[in-house]
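Risk mitigation, structural track. In case the binding assays with flavin-adenine dinucleotide fail to produce interpretable data, a predicted complex structure has been prepared as a fallback.
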Amino acid sequence: MPEQPRLTIQGWGRPTSPRDATVTGGREGDDGTLELAPFPDLAEVLPKAARRHLTKELGWTQRPTPPVPVSEIRLAPSRLAEDCRQRLGELLGEEHVRTDRASRLEHAGGKSYLDLLRRREGDASDAPDAVVTPGSTEETAALLALCSELGVVVVPFGGGTSVVGGLSGVDADDRPSVSVDLGRMASVRSVDVPSSLVTVGPGMRGPALEQRLERDGLTLGHLPQSWEFATLGGYAATRSAGQASTGVGRFDDLVAGLTLATPSGVLELGHPPASAAGPDLLSLALGSEGALGIITELRLRVRPRPRTRDYEGWSFRSWAAGLAGLQRLARHDLLPDVVRLSDPDETRANLLMASGPGARALRGALRARRRSGGCLLVVGWEGLPPLVRARRRAAASVLRESRAARVGSRVGESWRKHRFGAPYLRDSLMDAGLLVETLETAATWTALPAVYDAVRGALQESLGRRGRTPLVMSHVSHGYPTGASLYVTVLADRDDDLPIQQWLLAKRAATDALVAAGGTLTHHHAVGADHRPWLEREIGPLGVDVLRAVKQRLDPRGICNPGVLLPD
Ligand SMILES: Cc1cc2nc3c(=O)[nH]c(=O)nc-3n(C[C@H](O)[C@H](O)[C@H](O)COP(=O)(O)OP(=O)(O)OC[C@H]3O[C@@H](n4cnc5c(N)ncnc54)[C@H](O)[C@@H]3O)c2cc1C
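Fallback model:
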């Protein structure tokens, strides 16, 4: 199997092995961490027209703002007492308890804009005091019981791609913390082909699972943009959604059962194919973000690999027309497996920023239909050829009734090919002095237009001061019979003096606005530390009390990821 890519301390998937570093001009530091070559200059990754557009729209001056060298990141000494370290070593083996600088830095926080800003400024105050790697459910359960006894906070670590502060390890009592890296539990334990079930370890990543399933002609089909790095346990802990979730379902829908190790014991949850034995406790573990315990095994629903794939682009004249078109598809149960409707700003940015055959095909098709801009819809169907043909034909007739124009397969295929690329661009944009972050929500078809206006308005107002105009781009990323999710990307000139404050204010304004307009606090990124203050508005004070009572029973000393999910 090819070597897995690794996230880097300050960005997204820059090479970290010395071999790769040689290729990109990086070098290994004295302490084992890697000094990396700077990201490619923006000129290499963005066409000139796009850079000109950003300069004009955002009032942004391109300037080099590289991260501090990794060797200069500030890291406090580990607070883990020697006797605690010893007890952990006796339990897991010395080699599975690490307090070295490189390990702690690699497990510091996640990959939100704020996480990256902190690391780029040289701040690793959220780094764990140690990194431990249990190898089984039994070891994990024993580890949790021991940490509970010792008063050590435990933060499960999957792929480290949280974008909501899920790994920040905040603890009101300021106890020492360990990051529990699940990388040793990353194998396929069994494949039950007749039942379409696969049993896996939580640390496994999507690409490795798909490679294994291919042998049996199966697929999981969960493809978030973080697919190269995130883990299956992380998906379950955050209730992730993938790019094809409209068709195959969210990750919640793919979990048939799981094992949750807690300080109070081990829970086996879920009973496929279905059960009426009381309320489904599996739902309590999904989205629990490590606050109730650690997921140590998952039983997942898989399906036959698709025999055919069809991706194509359509164009609507306006956002309202696009939403109405999707709603009509949803009402007739004709939503494709992949649905992505970009608003006018995102469509325009795609046209400017992309220089490949997909963008050329879109420009050509729009010209031929005497359209400019509008809203691009990318749709994709996967499965058995006759079914794909029939679904596609039926959807096309609904889209035409909705006055959409077909802009071709090359547009859809190009999107498919480049769909994991944006996070790499994010690092180069940050290197050039830009604020770049995303947020997401979902709402009913009725509430969605108001939610869209509210988020845009809040971001524009918050980031638009002092002559700056942010670029706020949105798309519908998943469709449901009752509504859809909205994914928002924002670009703005970064305030070099107070970059963290700048985003905190904008994020607060946007979240207040979307919740007030009827959107959910989060459709698939989870609550983490960043969304905690709003949870009560979503589930009510009694709902929060119920969650607290469950946590109290499973985790009486509150050592399980205390900084996430539940408000202070
Ligand atoms: C560039 C980028 C693109 C992204 N795109 C998407 C997307 O398309 N769709 C989407 O849903 N999300 C996306 N995300 C968010 C992120 O990838 C998801 O939240 C993902 O599910 C996290 O998985 P992970 O393995 O990296 O978990 P981590 O980041 O390691 O952990 C996330 C949270 O879950 C807890 N946790 C992790 N593993 C376990 C476990 N085994 N048991 C209990 N708790 C655990 C952690 O303590 C933490 O609170 C994206 C993130 C980035 C940076």
